[in-house]
Design goal:
Elements (H helix, E strand, L loop, with lengths): L5 E6 L13 H19 L2 H6 L1 E11 L8 E11 L4 E9 L5 E12 L11 H6 L18
Amino acid sequence: MSHEPFEIGIEIQPGDIDALGHVNNVVFLRWVQEAAIAHWSALTNAQQKAEVVWVVARHEIDYRKPAMPGDGLRARTWVGGASRTVFERLTEVVRAADEVVLARGRTLWVPVDPVTGRPTMVSAEVRAVLSVPEDEVSPKARTEPLR
């Protein structure tokens, strides 16, 4: 399932640069998470945010090209498939100047009830906000790695 991507701008900070002179791989993971949080925040109202919090079950990142100091970057993210309690989120980090994809990420997120701390199913309303139909179950949203 493909959805319209949500984008955020990224500014490389001096502390993001590693001993090789490019952005450290761990920083890409931070950007993937920041994009997901910003998307959730933009999509939902206060009540929806109060009903569910998200916990990462799995991250996968493919690093394709380095990000260098001075690069203008964007992270774009969208929700892929979903099972009853696992949602796949896809993210790309691109260099703004030429749209080259520097990294691609796939994260499996589990909705958690903020009161009990236990995994929960999200409401039909939240599924609709995420553009994931109630009856859609995607094998990609399971916890096995990409092939």
